[in-house]
Amino acid sequence: MPKDTSDAPEQLISGGHLVAKALKNEGVDVIYTLCGGHIIDIYDGCVDEGIDVIDVRHEQVAAHAADGHARITGKPGCAVVTAGPGTTDAVTGVANAFRAESPMLLIGGQGAHSQHKMGSLQDLPHVDMMAPITKFAATVPVTARVADLVSMAFRECYHGAPGPSFLEIPRDVLDAKVPVSSARVPKAGGYRASTRTAGDPAAVERLADLLVHAEKPAILLGGQVWTARATEPAIDLVRQLNLPAYMNGAGRGTLPPGDPNHFQLSRRHAFGNADVIVIVGTPFDFRMGYGKRLSPDATVVQIDLDYRTVGKNRDVDLGIVGDPGLILAAVAEAATGRLNGGASRRKEWLEELRAVEAKAIEKRLPQLRSDASPIHPYRLVSEINDFLTEDSIYIGDGGDIVTFSGQVVQPKSPGHWMDPGPLGTLGVGIPFVMAAKHARPEAEVVALFGDGAFSLTGWDFETLVRFDLPFVGIVGNNSSMNQIRYGQKAKYGDARERVGNTLGDVPFDQFARMLGGYGEEVRDPADIRPALERARESGKPSLINVWVDPDAYAPGTMNQTMYK
Question: What is the pLDDT of residue 5?
């Protein structure tokens, strides 16, 4: 006879273990965290669920790493921090993910419900603070709802354009145990619908017609092309219709350098002279001159995941809301067989743009090959570009030095460019390295830092050593916050150019060695490439400290509107 279990005690589960189960069901395989008494039961649950726990030295790093994880993998990242200062330290990372449209969940601790409004340890109104910079922010009210709220937070990450969510979990809710039967644990794959929409068919047909008949078209492939993993349909459309393609943000690398449709340095000329301009997955923000850099005579089309972005700051002739991959594929299908897509008529237009690119490179060539010391930043970023392989993930973390690199460094594959995005946050470099190398241990990670940027989160270089996450790091060291210094010089004159922006001469190579990594100092440009090769061969986290000319400014820095 079967054994009578009616009197057996019902199995109990804690809030922390419910968090871990919900993370596992979402496909989360790692959390980035800094420990605190409010959150340790989540760690216990992660151990049982086989989720890696990477503990860092600052909560900003944890949040940036969760953001970086989402960018690399296409799956949401997760950071777990304690209450009060733990959560406020993570605000910058969440804000960066918000502006960059990166899906991540931040879980913050909170004092016990039983001590509400009593002044418990590290008690702050976290939800009120996080609401403006997240797509969803809530408190978990009872233990039985823990997994349910985690799943809800992940679902909200994908409403419209992706973004971050925040949950605070009071300590007594997290530590309490409830019968398994009373806890709602949404089933993996059963609580989120597909958010991929193909756009208005009539608008798709109109865009196909515009592109087929355009004489001088141009297309900008922005960050959402990578977010939506729309690389293949983007390439298919560009090649089928013979469109000059420009890429920004995470869209860099959609087409490899050397591709006949890959353009970079002629964007201003193209946008000033094109008759049809298609902007994919990029808002008309400061990077686009708020739309003013587009020819007023051009027919402008904007494609975006978020309805609120289309037509913001600049009128458009056609706006299509939906998944860039589905939309671009549908446009290509609609254009198939029609006047050869207009492709053959665009040869002269592409030749015109290529000539503009060649002239820009020729003008810059002396600096790219300069043997001067201190080293010209163009020489440094040129050496880095030549050093990258097909599978090198490039990360830029800095102001002026990374502005130089944006004109020269060309990732050779999709998803191989990482920068903070439109918030312009310094300090993302080390956490992005952490996330990229953990998610893709077989890939090489190369990171360029400004000396000011590295200083913000650089102590977590030790975390990379501790978790054996090697990368090739370069510090473009000019002992200055040069992007700001230029503005002060331009606005107030030479006598006041160095107020509040000058740093010490820090030998970052020694810092790397002190923490167990590999380090070298470079003052001669001929030594850059050999030093990079030795860093690659070391198999360790590395920093090559390159002393660059403090009086050289990137054109992008000098052209910033805030200094005009």
Answer: 53
Which string of b and e fits 362-390 if b means at least 16 CB within 10 Å?
Answer: eebeebbebeeebbbbbbbbbbbbebbee
Q: What's the pLDDT band for 231 if we cut at 50, 70, 90?
A: very high
Give CA–CA dist 314/292, Å, rounded: 7
> In what order do the strands lie in the sheet containing 165-170?
52-55, 30-33, 77-81, 104-110, 165-170, 136-139
Q: How far apart are CA 306 and CA 309, in angstroms?
A: 6
Could you report the per-residue pLDDT of 26-64, keeping only the tens digit for each? 999 999 999 998 899 999 999 999 999 999 999 999 999
DSSP secondary structure string for all residues of 433-455: HHHHHHH-TTSEEEEEEEHHHHH
Q: Decide: 49 and 74 in contact? Cβ < 8 Å.
A: no
Query: Looking up tokens 């609580």, which residue turns up?
Result: 191
Burial of 118 (0-12, 13-18, 19+ CB in 10 A): exposed
One DSSP character per residue, 100-139 reads HT--EEEEEEE--GGGTTTT-TT---HHHHHGGGSSEEEE
Asked whether the beta carbons of 89 and 35 are under 8 A apart, the reply is: no
Query: In degrees to the nearest 10, what's the CA dihedral of 244, 246, 252, 253?
Result: 10
Q: What is the pTM (predicted TM-score) of this model?
A: 0.94
60, 68 contact by CB (below 8 A): no
pLDDT of residue 230: 96
145-159 average pLDDT score: 96
Please give the distance of CA 449 from its chain centroid, rounded to a whole number: 15
DSSP element (H, E) containing 143 = none
